[in-house]
């Protein structure tokens, strides 16, 4: 049985970010790599997990849309935490200025996509469903 699922662009963008950061991660001092840098990779992995969960909710139900928004909220948190660890690596000179510029742009693009996706879920969550009655 083959299950076809199309991932949104944000998933592909995180995969590319993971690949770029992993190459940088490999060149870091072992103590920093183990203590901090692996957390970036873990958070990016978690972010992919939440994208898949959000993409697979039942978007036709209010509960499904609320769950999607919650998954995106977790995704945003993981991206912010990963970004903060990358910033620390840059401050400690383990990430070059050029790499930091590229990583910054990619993190900003991913954060922007997550915010738009979350708003989409939330806007759908608060729209009256068909055949519902509004009580004043």
Describe, in plain words, how this protein is organized in 3D.
By secondary structure, the protein is mainly alpha-helical. Helix content is 76%, strand content 0%. It has four helices and no strands. α2 (30-55) packs antiparallel against α3 and α3 (62-91) runs antiparallel to α4. The protein is elongated and about 50 Å long. The model is unreliable at 131-136 (pLDDT under 50).
Explain the layout of strands and helices:
Blueprint: H1 9-26, H2 30-55, H3 62-91, H4 97-126
Number of helices: 4
User: Roughly how many Å is the radius of gyration?
Assistant: 18 Å
**Total E-strand runs:** 0
Largest sheet: none
User: Could you say which structural class the secondary elements and strand pairing correspond to?
Assistant: mainly alpha
Strand content: under 5%
The coarse overall form would be elongated
What is the helix/strand order?
HHHH
Q: Percent helix among the residues?
A: over 70%
Low-confidence stretches: 131-136
Distance between the termini: 50 Å
- The residue-averaged pLDDT reads 90
């Amino acid at each position: 049985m083959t299950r076809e699922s199309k991932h949104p662009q944000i998933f592909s963008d995180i995969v590319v970010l993971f690949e770029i950061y992993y190459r940088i991660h490999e060149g870091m001092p072992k103590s920093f790599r183990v203590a901090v840098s692996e957390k970036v990779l873990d958070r990016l992995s978690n972010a992919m997990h939440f994208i898949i969960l959000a993409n697979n909710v039942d978007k036709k139900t209010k509960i499904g849309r609320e769950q999607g928004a919650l998954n995106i909220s977790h995704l945003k948190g993981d991206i912010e935490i990963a970004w903060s660890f990358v910033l620390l690596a840059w401050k400690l000179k383990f990430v070059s200025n050029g790499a930091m510029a590229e990583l910054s742009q990619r993190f900003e693009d991913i954060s922007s996509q997550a915010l738009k996706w979350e708003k989409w879920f939330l806007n759908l969550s608060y729209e009256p469903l068909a055949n519902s009655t509004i009580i004043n």
